[in-house]
Amino acid sequence: MTRSPLFRTAGLPLTGGMTTICADQVVTRGWAASVTMAATVFTVVTAEMLPVGLLTPMAAALHVSEGTAGLSLTVTGVVSALASPVLPLLLGKLDRRTVLVGLLVLLAAAGFLAAVTPVFTVFLLARVLMGVSIGGVWLFTMGLARRVVPEHAAGPATSLIFSGIGIASVLGIPAGAYVGELFGWRWAFAALGVLSLGLAVALGTFLPSLAPERPVRLCDVREVLQIKEIRVGLVLVALIVTGHFAAYTYVRPLLEPHTGPALIGTLLLAYGVAGVIGNFLTGALRPTRALIVISAGIAIATVTMPLVGTTMAGSLVLLVIWGLAYGGTTVSTQAWAHAAAPNAPEASSAVLVGVFNGSIALGAFTGGQVVDHLGTTTVTWLPAVLATAALVVVLANRGQRG
């Protein structure tokens, strides 16, 4: 069995006297690094999704429509999608720990800029900077767990790191909504800046030096895209994520007429708790089975939203189903991609993250057009249709991945 890079860096045998104590210390540091990366994932997801819980007051303060305000999510997604495949080529052999620290400092600067600007175009510039940071963090986090913990613990460490996605829904996005209600939406972005600076320090402390596993070249990306299973996985990501964010970006104006603004944070909290549970439940399944559950769950929750989600109780039930389903999307699609291209982790992660973030942008933009021209209540048909299409694709390719 191959030892993790931390054990190799320590240069110690794993048995015998004092060296065993030192190895235990290295393992402890590996788990501390995993927890720090989970917090980092939490922060970048919160940063990207923060407008979801603040959309209505943010649009009013910046003097734009809710659909236009949703472009702040679109811009971030587009930049993240472009940054993910480009950053490995630009950064070359630069230590990934240094890169991650720099990306968190950039995120902090963008958060502070978003908090103080009175102009929507400058706010979009802040979101562009966030997109660069988010795309880079996603990319370099994808295969990180197996580099900082022993091989047998890579699976649990991966689930821990990506639990930051669900926890962001549980704490980050609802907290942003609560802060917005109590102090104003700008303070939510200021808090994001402070948190990002703290994490930059933590990453520099707990992460080991992480040289690239191998330089990523354009030909690596082309080779990965020639793998049929990778292409199928990217289609699934595009369908599920585009559909999800077409409606989820506008969940606040969708729910407010039935629940009132004071309860939005509570409903988002319920969604987030379900997302954390879904992350671990579907993460334990084989990729194909997990994606079947995810697609079916999203389709059921969103197609019934206009009928059942007209009361507080109905909205709560459907958001829990929606959260349970979508919560495992990142872990499941990553597992699919890694199984399809195990020898090209950064290249496969680059295309996966690129399509993922591009789909967030497309979903937010498409949903915004529907909201502005057809009304908020019709936007849930997009995830219902696209998740059903994803279900058809995964069933047609169920022999690809177990």
UniProtKB/TrEMBL annotation:
Q: Where is the signal peptide?
A: none
Q: Which residues cross the membrane?
A: 31-50, 70-91, 98-116, 122-145, 157-179, 185-211, 232-251, 263-283, 290-309, 315-337, 349-367, 379-396
Residue ranges of every copy of the Major facilitator superfamily (MFS) profile domain listed in the record? 32-402
The subcellular localization recorded is: Cell membrane
- Indicate how the chain sits in the lipid bilayer: Multi-pass membrane protein
Q: Name one GO molecular function term.
A: transmembrane transporter activity
UniProt key word Ribosomal protein:
no
What coarse category fits the chief subcellular location reported for this protein?
A: membrane
* Protein known as: Putative MFS family arabinose efflux permease
Cite the source lineage: Bacteria, Bacillati, Actinomycetota, Actinomycetes, Propionibacteriales
